[in-house]
Specification:
about 0% strand, Farnesyl Diphosphate Synthase, mainly alpha, 2 strands, single chain
């Protein structure tokens, strides 16, 4: 069993090196502490790019973009200013993609849109961290709209998303069949 774990760990490290190697950065933090961002081996921008790799991988194989099309259609009536609409559309795509990364891990998905799911290339921990990072980048984008209502809506919807997904996982893992009412409540979330 230990041999199998070592082989899996070595294979995972080799896969990570191959995937991250195209970033042209090392996999290990520098040994010397450096406070000057310009001279730092890892700048915050480089860190951000590394952390976003699973997300960028998912985006490289796009879906149908239904959410953006729906937003555009609804805006015929809502008339949201273009700048705010761009932020909202981008944030919704970020949230959807981040939730797909998490969902693939939770469901043990092998494929997403016909290619290997991100966690098979980047590992479960990195993929989960990436998705959470994207949630916070989306929140950061929403706060730039300077509308507290948007932050409230964002928070409520993320709570709903996790509540619904959590109940689905609970029912799956406990082999519990929800009532029709419970199921519809979960879908709403």
């Amino acid at each position: 069993m230990l041999t199998t774990q070592i082989q899996a760990s070595t294979a995972g490290a080799a896969a990570a090196a191959k995937v991250y190697g195209r970033l042209n950065v090392g996999l290990h933090a520098p040994t010397k502490a450096n406070k000057d961002k310009e001279d730092s081996y890892f700048s915050l921008e480089t860190w951000g790019q590394i952390l976003l790799e699973p997300y960028k991988y998912l985006l490289s194989n796009p879906g149908k973009d239904v959410r953006a099309k729906m937003i555009e259609a609804f805006n015929a009536w809502l008339q949201v200013p273009e700048e705010a609409l761009e932020v909202i559309t981008h944030v919704i795509e970020m949230l959807h993609s981040a939730s797909l990364l998490i969902d693939d891990v939770e469901d043990g998905s092998v494929l997403r849109r016909g290619v290997p799911a991100a966690h098979h290339l980047y590992g479960v921990p990195q993929t989960i961290n990436c998705a959470n990072y994207v949630y916070f980048l989306a929140l950061e984008a929403i706060t730039k709209l300077n509308d507290p209502t948007m932050v409230t809506i964002y928070t409520e919807e993320l709570i709903n998303l996790h509540r619904g997904q959590g109940m689905e996982l609970f029912w799956r893992d406990t082999l519990t069949c929800p009532t029709e009412e419970e199921f519809l409540e979960m879908v709403d979330n």
